[in-house]
Amino acid sequence: MSAAMVPAFRSSRAVVMLAIVAIVLVANVARVVQIKLAPHPELMQAAGKRESTVREMALRGEVVDRRGRVLATSVVGHRLFVDPALIWEKGWEQVKRGRRADPDSPVDADPFDDAARAIGFAIGEDPKRLLAQLRSHADRRYVVVADLLEEWQLDAIRELKLPGVGIEPRLVREYPMDALAARVIGTVRADQVGVTGIERAFNRSLSAEDGSMTFLRNVRRAPMWIERDGYQPATDGEPIRLTIDAVIQEIAERQLDAAVKRFNAAGGRVVVADVETGDILAMADVMRQRPGFKEIAPADDRERKPSLGRNRCLTDPFEPGSTFKPFVWAWATKIGVFKPESRVALPGGGPHRTSFGRLIRDVKYYGPNTWRFVLVKSLNAGMAIAAERMKFKDMQECVRAFGFGALTGLDPTMESRGIVTPAKSWRGPTQTSVCMGHEIAVTPVQMVRAFLVFCRDGTMPPLRLVLPADDALALVAQRQVEGPRVLPESLALLTREVMADVMVEGTGRKAQSALYRIFGKTGTAQLPRPNGRGYYEDRYVSNFLGGAPLTQPRIAVIAVIDDPDKRRQHFGGETAAPLARDIIDETLQYLGVPPDQESAKSKSIHNLAAAARD
Amino acid sequence: MFGKLLAIVVVLGVMALALLVERQRRYETTLAISRTHARILEQERTLARFRADVARRVQPAQVRVALRALTGEWVPMPHRLDQSTPPTAPRLAADQPDPSAPNAPIPVEFGG
């Protein structure tokens, strides 16, 4: 080989080698591309499923009270399920393995019995019950053993590592305050959809949207790669902040429950509202079944679960009776029917006969007296005389101006408008009935809203049950919420003063507070028969509508006692008024409002605090 | 020439290795992120459970019973800052600071 040929040889050899290397590299790349894009089915089968999708559970929004206390929240719980078929199969496999290792081992094993004993021991359940459950569902692949595991049960089951026993996460709606405000909050179905109360009314904003993650998994099934659109984050529900104060709610429910039992009543309702903002601070509703009584309103589902019952403060109107008089009294004064000190020709010896011949009775006949006296003594005759002087449209305007017959908007899904006689059906008897709170049905929340007119400067704010969740300082910075003017300020103050006299000289005497100067009005009305034919002779609804302190009212309260046992007490001044007084006393002390009764000022908790400092 | 080829192969090999390392890092990062994400979710669930537990233990009725068991006069929390009620904090009356003192703490109010 000549010297000149060596480079050429080397050059051709290099080209060949280069070509081989290039071919190998290209072949490798092509193979990688082929495996990646169009793998052989057998290869795919051997590799198995390479992608997993997991659901990311989103939490339903919390419901908290005005101070942020949790009333309803969602937590992730765990459900225990078993696969009986797998338990049986794996159990016998184990027995066979045991026989192979030791041919003399016994073969009378029962996989169900073993599993039932192990699970029962782990979760503290009776193994016999579990065994029966396994045997009766032997052919099924999914049997729920425990719907919600405690933490210690969960740990014990995880320790078991038993084939055919699984744990499934699930959302659980928790109500940490138990039955407190249950009728207000409501409840949810198993699929976390609200069915009653706030849970239903605000279901859309409380609802959560689950997310998902699809990922390429490694041999240990852990995420190896996630594509750009493989992850959809979960969206938790928005929290709802109620105007309810859990402490005031507890006060209202406790006092109401005690009063209902004391008077052996069918139930009771209480609403407490903040005067300045129209915030509902508490809304309680109690019903009970009494042996020997045929209840007019059944306690529906609340016996089974308190939150399933309707919130009667919103749904069930009632005839208020005399508690309606202050509204008509103030309106009649406003339009000039009477001045507070005007003389009213009240009957002295018997019932008043209206121009259309209806007899209006009173407990006592005082004879002519002032218009102020009519409200203080709650005289039906005086109210009827004023009503006869008013035009129909004046009375209708009064009813409309105070918001009766109109929704408060607290819960549009279930709220009642009450019952107001239409203008075309309005007659003389209607006029003289409505003036004393009959032939009109109102809900407790409507009554409280209307009463705020007297507690404020004559304006009526809208009621609120939900606060803006994103405004943490809303409560600190809150000021009086504006509302339409119903009465002049001076007349609102005057009516308040007259209602303060009701507590001293009138039907509210037995409900005077030792701490606060309360103003209000009592009412006792006969219960209408369910068939619409007249009223019961001896069954009543008694109620009280009041506020305190007199000079600078902070809260308005309505207390309703449904069908109290007449053998005990049934007048509003003896049943509902003391209940409202107790709630007012406790609530105002909780809110830090100094007592304004002269006799109580020296015992004021603030003075005690000052004394302790000194 | 052989040296050149070797160099090319080595360079390609190094490049492939670098790509593999980078790919592996991406996988590991993905795994770490997903694990962290799972831990965050778990913490959020635990937090929700704790919040429920706390709420269960401070039910108003239970707090009232607990307060009764304590001696001393308790002062209620004022309704709002913008009200004329005395600025008191929820503590024992005997421990109340003098609100007229120059460095008296500003009462904190979270609602009404």
Q: Can you offer a commentary on this structure?
A:
The complex is a heterodimer of chains A (614) and B (112). In chain A, 37% of the residues lie in helices and 19% in strands. Chain A has 21 helices and 20 strands. By secondary structure, chain A is an alpha+beta fold. In chain A, a hairpin with a 5-residue loop joins strand 6 (211-217) and strand 7 (223-232). In chain A, strands 2, 3, 4, 5, 8 and 17 form a six-stranded mixed sheet that branches. A five-stranded antiparallel sheet of chain A has the order 10-9-20-19-18, sandwiched between helices. In chain A, helix 4 packs antiparallel against helix 6, helix 10 (246-262) packs antiparallel against helix 19 (576-590) and helix 12 (325-334) crosses helix 18 (489-505). Chain A has two domains: 57-98 and 111-210, Penicillin-binding protein 2a (Domain 2) (Alpha-Beta Complex), CATH 3.90.1310; 246-612, DD-peptidase/beta-lactamase superfamily (Beta-lactamase), CATH 3.40.710.10. The radius of gyration of chain A is 37 Å and the shape is elongated. The model of chain A has no long low-confidence stretch (mean pLDDT 87). Chain B is mainly α. The radius of gyration of chain B is 32 Å and the shape is rod-shaped. Chains A and B meet through helix 1, strand 3, strand 7, helix 10 and helix 21 of A and helix 1 and helix 2 of B.
